[in-house]
Batch of 2 targets.
Target 1
Amino acid sequence: MATEPPKILEIDVNANERFSRIKAAFLCKFGRAPEFYARAPGRVNLIGEHIDYCGYAVLPMAIEQDIVTAVAENTSGIVNLANTNSVYPDYNVAVDKVVIDKSQPHWYYYFLCGFLGLKEHLGEVTCHGMDCLVDGTIPPSSGLSSSSAMVCCAGLATMHANHKSMSKVTLAEVCARCERYIGTEGGGMDQSISFLAEAGKAKLIEFNPLRASDVRLPGGAAFVITNSLAQMNKAASSHFNMRVVECRLATKVMAKTKGLAWRNITKLGELHEKLGLELPEMVRLVEETLHCEPYNRDEVCSLLGIASEELEASVLSENTRDANSFKLYQRAKHVFGEAARVQQFRRVCQEAQSGSDAEVMSRLGELMNDSHASCRDLYECSCPELDKLVECCLKSGAVGSRLTGAGWGGCAVSLVPVGEIEAFQLLLKERFYVEAPHSRLLAYNSMFATQPVMGAALYKEAL
């Protein structure tokens, strides 16, 4: 499946309320009908937070909420971008003049990340101009991968508009590199699940090489996504990239301590592989080799035997070059512990038939709770609103609950018995959302039970 290109599906646009609305808006904007539609889903990460860019497997699933783009080629050599949401302004740029301003993460730059990545991947091919109308149902800055879904949708649309075909894996790998144009040093989870997802299945996504394997979730389990109503745009702050840098520094300091060629090792997963230890042993190694207090720049440079200029050039990123305090112990301990929890979560799902639903869900819930505690206390990627939301979810009947996505705002995902979803949602509205009456509509739109859906696909209007 992963070596195949995304599906091209026929759709009766007139019988589909959403596609009919998008087509009508496209006609109004561009004066003609779209030639095809590209769709890429958002995702919820069930467990495995902030470890994909360290080389470790994660366990997400695609959700119903998505980005859909209506597309028609043009002969002007211009990419014309519009959005069905009037909050987002139109934008146009020549295909050979695309520049992405990292300091201004506007919505259209995410689309152009996907366009530019595919354009560069295609090499000498001169890309066609495109008229594009984007429609999204993923709440922005919610931790459900709206930005990556936009990048993937744009990449898929660009591929098809230029009459090319490539596998889902290749598309995922290209699109995973695309967000670096806007300054985000992610690991590839979001793009991988967006392309490789299958209906009814969560996926264990592994890297180097990229591969996905099915994870069957317990039949009595539902996952409910709830919005903390706190928003954080990871491209507009240094929080995300700072964690990437701290993990990179922890890798190098630990590698040098063990006498390895530390300059060539950049990820905690690579260090783990070279040492040949089990994950619990890696946690112990963190406790033995790193101290709890933050490291300052001078100490890191002294430990590695390098000048500050080399640190900036080879380790720090553009928006972390002024950093002078690095929490290496906490970040590394989270990564190794979280990687172990992903393995345990998968194992519990595989063994689900040998235990009762209640027993299986209790074990999964405990892993989710431990994950949130680690994100909160060691990785420090939670926030007061998320912590309160997770606490309210657990009090309202969730078996387990944790932040999902980059954090610092956005959503929580909760494991809830199928028969208790409605009661859970009613209790949570009373416990959490009643204090934010102005946000009730947002809360309603962002609190939903979800099942795994199909990954990215192309749609053509049935004749």
Target 2
Amino acid sequence: MRLTLKNIGLIKSADINLRGITLIAGENDSGKSTVGKMLFSIVKADNIAEHKLESYMEGKRKGLLEKIKTKLVQTVPSLVKEIPEDVKSKKHVEKLYNLLFGKGLGKELGKEVKELELWVNEEKAFFERRRREFYSQVLYNFGALDALISENEKGEVYLLAEDGTELYKVLLTSESVSFYDSVPEVNGKKVRPFKDATLICTPVVMDLVEFFYRLVIKKKDRLKYPYPFIMRDLVRKLLREKKAEDGLEIAKEIKSIIRGNLKLEKDEILFEKEGRIFRMLGTATGIKSFGILLLLLENGTVSYNSILIIDEPEVHLHPKWQLEYVRILVEIHKTLGTRILLTTHSPYIVQALRYYTEQISEKVDFYLAEDGQLKCANDNVGMIFDLLGEPLWRVI
């Protein structure tokens, strides 16, 4: 698969492979993280939009009908009893249209009736919900559209199959979003390239598990202030009680590296080592980094039809553990077939990925983020080392 971007944040143009393990290296503020967040946003928006679509449509319809009733109470109260509890077809909407417009209420209620037409058509409703979900993902993950797209510019994102078939297309301006797909259908159900995406941006999320569980997940996201969706999504997955069948040998390797185990207790994750129990707040951040992978492996979140996106894992890892972390990622891809997108500014991470993938001939692609471009470095990984190593050579 390939992901292409044009005029998205700091990235002016990029065309990258997602065929195995993909690494993007570069300095801070070079656009590396933007690529991963955009891929995450596309996959999540598409999957969320289809989830419980029928009940979502019903909720939208009933909400609009309640709005119509409220306006009628203020204008023609006698008509309120003639408004149905729900409308489920275009024919029902037309009947409501004729009732209201026949009473001269088209100007006041035309907007609500027109939107009702959208939520009785499953295909149109799916595309609109997905567009809205993607817009929400942009707000959650980037802050605003104009943080991604400059005024008077157009951004483009495409996810392509290996034969060049366009699976997803997203067009953005500083004020609007359009989301299209050409994903094939079998028996009326879309067959998507990824069932899910997981983005790990910081192990500090392990300290926030109780917060997200109690104030976000348990209260069904009814908060009056914004929160990082990426973290909430990860916390949900960390708290899954499902038991995986594959990847458990890799989980054992992680336990050996951190010399302990993680376990769930109600809404909290605990670290167990040599018979002692530690809360996450008192646990080393490096152990949290490996602990996230451990829990995701044990509950089956990491799988062949998911993509794992990891942003700068080296930040909290000693060079020795950076090598071990990469070795585990290579094992995950080799054993489970999980696609992995990795960003870094660590030469240890780059070299470790070269070394471990060469041992087993796994597919790996290297890119350097520089000057708004993502340059393929498969045939010249040295240019990545030149950039990442330059600060050290300068002071030696």
